[in-house]
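Need residues for this backbone.
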């Protein structure tokens, strides 16, 4: 059965295996959860297909996060993974899509596929140091402008002290927006 132009619920893993066999590094179906590891170069095409294919309709990007495997006991091909958690409001199925990333390697942005990827990618960049090529606004969300390092990496010193700036551009930006909307 072809995974294109259908209006019946499809198995996400079966549809991906049929449409993108060379793009898949691995797939896993475990206790009702589907996961797939995708080649970085095919990420945008795979994710666009998952969103647009009527039988899949993954129209909700729930989360974007990173995973650092530095201290993982089993050898990994790359140190990091970026994990995208998708949900189909129409069909009620979930899918985890992962991309393996080496230190200093970037991933293509998905902010053109899902607007909600914007902040998740910013958080992943800020916390893990994973860059996103083509991202429209890759800047800090959670830490101040003088913060040094990536706090969710396994090699980040737990007791590291950070300088604290007096004024943060994010706070200034929010103050301006609140004043503009008449809320302050």
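Answer:
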């Amino acid at each position: 059965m072809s995974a294109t132009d259908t209006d019946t619920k499809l198995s996400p893993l079966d549809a991906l295996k049929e449409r993108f066999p060379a793009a898949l590094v691995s797939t896993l179906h475990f206790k009702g959860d589907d996961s797939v590891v995708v080649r970085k170069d095919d990420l945008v095409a795979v994710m666009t297909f998952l969103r647009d294919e009527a039988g899949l309709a993954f129209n909700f990007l729930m989360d974007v996060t990173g995973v650092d495997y530095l201290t993982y006991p089993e050898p990994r091909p790359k140190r990091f993974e970026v994990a995208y958690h998708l949900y189909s409001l129409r069909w009620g199925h979930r899918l985890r899509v992962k991309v393996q990333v080496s230190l200093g390697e970037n991933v293509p942005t998905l902010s053109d596929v899902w607007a909600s990827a914007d902040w998740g990618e910013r958080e992943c960049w800020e916390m893990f140091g994973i860059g996103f090529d083509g991202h429209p606004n890759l800047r800090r969300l959670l830490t101040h402008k003088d913060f040094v390092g990536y706090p969710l990496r396994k090699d980040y010193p737990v007791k590291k002290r950070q300088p604290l700036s007096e004024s943060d551009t994010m706070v200034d930006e929010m103050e301006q927006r609140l004043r503009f909307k008449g809320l302050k």
